[in-house]
Each structure stands twice: as C-alpha cells, then as structure tokens.
Amino acid sequence: MSFFALLLLALAATAIGFALLFVVARRIDNYGIVDIAWSAGFAPVAVFYAVLADGAPTRRILIATMAVLWSARLAWHLGRRVLGHHPIEDGRYQQLRRDWAANFGVKMFKFFQAQALLLVALSIPFLLAARNPNPSLHPLEYAGLILWLVALTGETLADAQLATFKREPVNKGRVCDHGLWRYSRHPNYFFEWLIWVAFALFALASPWGWAALACPALMLFFLLKVTGIGYTESQLLRTKGEAFRAYQRRTSAFVPWLPKPEA
Prior knowledge:
Structural class: mainly alpha
Low-confidence stretches: none
Distance between the termini: 61 Å
Largest sheet: none
Number of strands: 0
C-alpha cells in the first residue's frame, strides 16, 4: 500500500476516533481526556503502519515497539493526572471555555479534529521507517534507538521525581528543584522532545527520511511557544509566586544545565 494511502487511512480512522471522543468528553463534561487520547493514539497508528506497510519486518516491529512503549507510558502518566482530578478539568480547558464561550461546542470539536491531524502528521517517522525495504539496520537507526532509550528513561525519571515531590505534604507550595529538576525547569519536556529527535533520526535512514525532521521541529515549537513552557510557567507564577521566580533565575528553562549561583 502506498505512503499516502496509509497516511489517509490513518487520518480517517483517527478523525472518526476523535469525533467519538468529543461526544464522550461532552457527556462527562471534561475535555482534558483529549490529552490522554492524543498520547495513546500513536500506538495503534504505529501498529497499523507496521502491519500494512511493506518494509523489512524487523524494522517494522522495532519502530512499532518503540512507538507503542513511549505512547503507552505517556498515556498512562497523563491518564493518572487527568482522571485523578476528575471532575475538575485541567486549567487549559477551563480557559478555553472562557475564551470560546460564544461558540464553544463547534470550536472544541475543531480543536479535537486538529489533535487528530497533528497526531497523524507526527506519525510520519513511523510510516517512513515501516516502508523501508532494506533488510539491515543502518547506523542511524541504532543511534535513534539508543537516543530513544535515553530519552524515555529521562522522561520517566523526571515524571517520577516530580510525582514523588508532590506527594510529600511538606512540599506544598514549594517548587520542585530536586533530581533532574535542579538542572532544567522542564526536564520532562526536554526528554519528550529528544524522543521525537530519536524517531526522526531512526527514520532518517529510510527513503525520504529527511521529511521526518519536521516532526521534532514542530514538537519543539509547540513545547516552547504554544502549550508547553509558556503556559506551564504562567500557571506556576500565579500559584508559587516569588519562589518560582527565584527558580527561574537560577535554572535553565529547557536544556539541562548547571544552575546559576544564588545572587
């Protein structure tokens, strides 16, 4: 099956799935579940490509396994956070309710469909790799696999460290600056981005693999400018005030680095 046929089938299925998810979100009155579905959605899409693409079987299995493990871990992490606070909705969606009050239902439906489109666009590295007929793995693919292991470990560790910090009652109102959070204000975002770099690196060994480089670039834009650092830090400044400002002054925003000495 051709590249575009597989991509369009994945898009059609994902669009239908997110339309049904929108109905569920309206019913439970919590639109934050789209974050869980978006993360989880990469797994079936990657498996779909692995089953129907005509590349070398070993590579198809490997890239699908990488995608499924990453997708499942992130969906589990977000699911615990979103459903753990239900029926209280994530602050981003509460703000969208206010911003889109005049025509909320239609705009939110379009938002869900935009998530489906973004998911399929970001799945392109999986499809490129799954269609690569070369029976031997390329050094770029080994490098991508190693980077993926490092990034997945780093993201898992960062999430665990933050969760442990938040569980301690004594830390209420304080800023987490332990472990990886001592060297980056958003180590989870940094390692998430590295995962996309790893997927692109793996796909780079395939025909037209250079197209996969757009995915980490797009993810970096979203993390730095749209839904990542900016929104998170504005929330933390409102809730933690001067403690977070001091943390900002001494700690790298994204790439882990040695903290600046206190003035």
